[in-house]
Amino acid sequence: MSHETQPVLFSGIQPSGHLTIGHYAGALRNWVRLQHEYDCLFCIVDLHAITVRQDPATFAERCLSFAAQYIAVGIDPQASTIFLQSHVPAHTELTWLLNCNAYVGELSRMTQFKAKTQGKTDKTIGVGLFDYPVLMAADILLYQTQLVPVGADQKQHLELTRDIAIRMNHHYGPLFTVPEGFFPEVGARIMSLQDPANKMSKSDPNANNYVALLDSPETMRKKIRRAVTDATPGITYEPDARPGVANLLNIYGAFTGESPAALAERYADKGNAALKHDLAEVIVEALQPFQQRYHDLMTNRDYLVALLRQGAQSAQQRALPTLRATYERMGFLPA
Ligand code: TRP
Prior knowledge:
Strand content: 5-15%
Largest sheet: 3 strands, parallel
CATH topology of the largest domain: Rossmann fold
Order of helices and strands: EHEHHEHHHHEHEHHHHH
Strand order of the largest sheet: 1-2-3
Bound molecules: tryptophan
Number of helices: 13
CATH class of the largest domain: Alpha Beta
CATH architecture of the largest domain: 3-Layer(aba) Sandwich
Radius of gyration: 21 Å
Helix content: 40-55%
Structural class: mainly alpha
Number of strands: 5
């Protein structure tokens, strides 16, 4: 099927911290599956990442590494558009036009903004953090995106995107497709290994909370071995009563395709140690080819840089008609 007739899909991840098995199970693997049914744009949202100060010396390298990980996991740069957000100036341009159609009230209600600024004073809260969801709206609306696969924590940002799109379509005539979110099932949510009440996060200061896709096999084994469980003998799948064990079963199932309940039955008479041992091996083995491809790609940096340049050119070209139409409908004199 040619891309022209396929619905447009857009998603992105911030190049901060380390991509984890949570991204693998909750996002990247779905992207790989969806890339032949949709016309996909997969972005490395580097402009979003600087809402938290980044070390300039490592930032560029991390962006390149994320691109290599997208490809190593199976996103085909021939089938999908892979690019860095900062390489496509249309994103920041549209952000300004959307900013003038978004309200302080609606941005102040964003729970992620409230969570990230809790306990801070206005003097230390960056404007970028506040405006973050408008940049995200620009990412999505520029491409007439129909489908946006994101984590449940992004639901509110997507609602805002829809509100802005509907508002501007109303004021200026139809400009934007109103996008739909696509949220992973609850079981696909992978939680922190030490604190299973919270989502596994790539920027967690405690590296024992996550398994990074690029962790060495030894590190992976060690982290799984140390994961929090409980003292109840045997294995059962009880997400509320036994969140640590349930999380391990969810991860296991995410990698093998088995249901966590069926896995619990299989391990019923065994202990946490046996479950952890086998789970670690499952993860190590599943990620071995990924890591191999990743390291091969990173030795061929010119190829990666060229791919990103190509992706950005294609994205900018696709974004321009929507950007120009927005300027025009708002009454700007054409350049
Ligand atoms: N805010 C998203 C997150 O933290 C990342 C993101 C930025 C994004 N722009 C996007 C996701 C556009 C989907 C579409 O997960």
